[in-house]
Amino acid sequence: MGSSLCTGGHTDVEIALKRILSFKDVIGLLLIDADGNILRSTLAEEEEVEKYAQEIPALVIMSRSAVREIDPKNDLKMLRIKSKKHEIMVVVDPQFTLMIIHEYPGHYVEPPPPPPPPKDSDDDYSD
Amino acid sequence: MTENTKPSSTTKKNVNSQNTKKDEGKQVDSTKAPSLGDKDSKGEKPGSPNKLQASVPLPTLPLGQRESYRNQFNLAKAQADAAAAQAAGGGGSKISTLYPSSHRQSGSSQISFSSRTSNRSSRLPRSKKKKGQDEVMQVFNEFGKDVTPKPLVTLQPTVLTDKLWAEPGAQSIQGSDLEHSVPIYSRTGFSVTSTAGSLTPETIDLGPDLDIDEQDSRKSRSFRSSSVNLDTTPTPKLQVIAVYAPIITPTTEPELENPIPVHITESCNQVLLSMRGNNLNMAFETINQVLSRNTHYEELLSFKKGSDNYQPNMCQTLFSLQKNKESQASILSTQSYAIQVNSWDIADSVGGKVKPDQYQPWKVVTHASKDTKTTNPTTTVVLLSELFSAEQPSAPLSSLPSPSVSRRQSNSGGGAISRKGSMSIGGLSRRPSASGGQISKRPSWSLASRRVSTSGGTQGLDEYLRGASPESLGTALGSAIDSQVGAPEIVKPVELQPDLSKLTGLFKALEMVERAIVLNTYHDMLLEFCDFRAREIIPEPPPPVELDKDGKPVVKKPPTPPPPPPPLKEEPEQELGPKVILPTIEPSTQSVHGLWNFECDVTEGRNVSCMAWNKANKHLLAVGYGQFEFGIQKRGMIAFWSLKNPRYPHAMITTKSGVLTLDFAIASPSLLAAGFYSGNVAIYDIRNPKEGPIIQSGFETGKHNDPIWKVQWVDHSSEHGESLVSVSTDGRVSQWSIKKDLEYVNLMRLKRVPGQNKGAQPQPFISRRSAGLCFEFSPKHPSVYLVGTEEGPIYKCDRSYSEQYMQMYMGHNGPVYQVRWSPFMSNLFLSCSSDWTVRLWNEEQANALLVFQTVNMGIADVQWSLANACVFALASTNGHLEVWDMQISVMKPIVVYYIENCVFSCLLFALETPILLLGGNTGSINVLRMEGFERNEDENVEIKKLKDALVANVTRHGGT
């Protein structure tokens, strides 16, 4: 993984972080460690950060439990929550939880793609 | 018998030396002998031959003491005999009381034995004359029976500090108090292993006023042992005190002076212990036998000394001595913990995944009890970690229990909490034992209650659960969490300060997220890429909008009958153009539009020199970056682009020299061969792209002297599997085999051939060498390959013949950049050259079948479509992409795609979908979607199409 252009894993991570944040439809990134400390946050409002840091890990635990209950050898890796406004992607790791709030294009971009894009996501937020 | 027999000199000496324990020890030895000697015959050790008849056991002495006195026994015997003789004359008391010399000052030791009066007769003289003597005590009951308590344990004298004995008067108290003092001293003065209640003869320090108190205490207890050392540490010496005295109460001083006759009458002997001794008296009957046996034994011993038959040796006895050892241990305490886990928790534990010292970010605890299961079928989750430590007191949650509730529950030591019926914790039972104070000191417990009580309205449940978790999880996990519980902090978001490098999985997570984001964005384009269209039968006319920068929109050229001919046409083919086929094809269905570009900041400005699909993962594209020109060489790069992330390469390899060509191996798809501008060949394992090439050519093993323009894996099934073939401008076509190193064999050294065209007379060559630019092995005959040269001719070679060409194809006037065999008809191939033309050749014919030319620039690459036999695409160095369909026209491309200011260098069709990749000097790879080029599943139909097209277009030309 990673490019050999980069000197080490650390800068790899930084570069990847920067790249992700450079995507214009990424609203925010939130990285909390296993203790709940917020390591990195690009969300502007602190209240919002708190809310995310509170609510999402609880959901992660529930989903992980569900996954593991079904198959104890299985484990949760990622959680994608498509909401009406955006998509929250949660990557679960024993050491940290990475959340990214992504305003996915189907929500606001209509014209460019030939097939109407929001078709597949209709089901998700219709209920 | 009275104590007057004691020598007074000993007494004086004892008084002088009584202050130090050392002196006392010595003196005990010296004074003990007479004490034993003075004993009544009943107290004699039965081992002595002359006392065998009086087989009354000694009162049990401490073992060490007894042994130390054994050597003095002879002396004691003599004295005892004398005493017995003397006692025989006496009357009064039945049993003599013997007080050996004691170094006591007051001589106040007293034994009172169920009689009302004190045995004044013995006590009084003792107090005067027998000061400082040890006593051995013996107790008899009314019937004269020896009831001296046997020591249950061996008393070993230990060193007592003088402090304990500093105030002996304090201990001289009433008899009732004396009872209490016994165990106290037994604990301090001796290492006693029995409990305090055992009846052990004690050595007690009594005060000097015991004499007075003795009067009161004599009725109190039948047994009171007292061997008193005043002002000194107690000695463990016991003295036999036989007490049974007539009641004589001297009241006046003269009476005291009077000798008191004591009559000792013989009572019936009671044998408590009878042991036969080893020592025999000379008067014994069998003495002679014994003596003779002894002498015989000595003779035997002396005989042994010089003999060879005997040898001193050591052996171990069968049974070693057994020792009783006692050790001290704390009182056992029991605690019981309860933990409830679910199936995957158990799976983790059994699988050894969980290390107790490793912090676990989550822990799920479920109720195992049935009733809870039935009422709460959902999994109950208990958060044990501090995932929520970012909570703030200003954000109370109404659904959580109030702090008072949680505090009460935590103080109650467990119990089930249920939150909305879904969260609960298993009941914990905690049973502290006698040493339960230990538990109450546990920081986690107290901390838990404290935190819960002070946690305001926030997350009381979580607080509680966090606090209670150590108890429910046992000590191992608990200790891990304790440390975290102890650090309650509210974390503010910190920008860029925490070191992210410790999070080892972060990079992968970011990669995953990035792919997810990108897939969100590129979803539709990827659908197009994969040619996946649900429910859409006819594609709508593509919008003219193109994503590419400065790109002209799709140029659609309807196949019109004879168009204005291109200005430069070498061979007139105008008349062939509108033959038969045109009307059958709908005009406007074919087009090309861009989807996205594989580009990123790293690749910007580099020249895309080559592209190769991975043979196994059809969505992995290896792209080589390197400059073609000599003057502007810089470091090269190989990037691996995946469809999963079109925005950033999956991995990158930087190389010292520019990469000119790449090819994936067929059999082992992870091997990637690269040819460099420096002439080197390297093979990478793309599973570990960072580790550099796994094998590499060099000066030692040989390398090309000039840039390598093409490498290709060739599978010769018969021989060593796959091998790599490369071509370079140094004229060599080399086959590399992976053995210990990359070793090469020259398949061909390209040489110039005198021009055959037009029969012109050959011109002298400056160099006989020819420079190879491209080659391709025939898909049909694995040993046949074509080599395109810089001079223009194309040679067909065979690996079996390294000296001569099988066929020469003359026609190109400039360097031949690529030759491509047709995937459908194996005798056809295309070649492109910098002479602005693309030519179609038949393997059998030296001259080109067809010549395609529209643009006025060199053609960098040409590719057959993998789906349509008649379709090929070419990329020119002035930014034109042309797609030709020979079925429609051999005069004009059916689609032209133009990007300004771009020098295309390579071209690649996707393997299965109508996708065209176009690489140029801008560093970006244009992914183009071709519309109207549906794959025809029937290969024969395609071949037939191609044949028809050839027949229609070539025959006349071929005839000329």
From TrEMBL, chain A:
Coiled-coil regions, chain positions: none
Q: Which residue range or ranges hold the Roadblock/LAMTOR2 domain?
A: 13-102
Q: Which residues does the annotated region (Disordered) include?
A: 107-127
Top-level division of the source organism's lineage: Eukaryota
Which Pfam families does its entry note?
Answer: Robl_LC7
Q: Which family does it belong to?
A: Belongs to the GAMAD family.
What name goes with this protein?
Roadblock/LAMTOR2 domain-containing protein
Q: What is the scientific name of the source organism? A: Sphagnum jensenii
Automatic annotation (TrEMBL), chain B:
Where is this gene product found?
Cytoplasm, Cytoskeleton, Flagellum axoneme; Dynein axonemal particle
Domain of life of the source: Eukaryota
- Repeat (WD) positions are 809-851
Q: Where is this region: Disordered?
A: 1-67, 89-134, 196-230, 393-466, 540-575
Compositional bias segments (type: Pro residues): 556-567
Keyword list, A-Z: Cell projection, Cilium, Cytoplasm, Cytoskeleton, Flagellum, Repeat, WD repeat
* InterPro entries attached to this UniProt entry: Dynein_IC, WD40/YVTN_repeat-like_dom_sf, WD40_repeat_dom_sf, WD40_rpt
- Extent of Basic and acidic residues compositional bias: 20-29
TM annotation in the entry:
none
Q: Which Gene3D superfamilies match?
A: YVTN repeat-like/Quinoprotein amine dehydrogenase
Q: Where is the composition biased (Polar residues)?
A: 1-19, 435-456
Enumerate composition-biased segments (Low complexity).
Answer: 101-122, 393-410
* Protein name per its UniProtKB record: Dynein axonemal intermediate chain 4
Source organism of the structure: Sphagnum jensenii
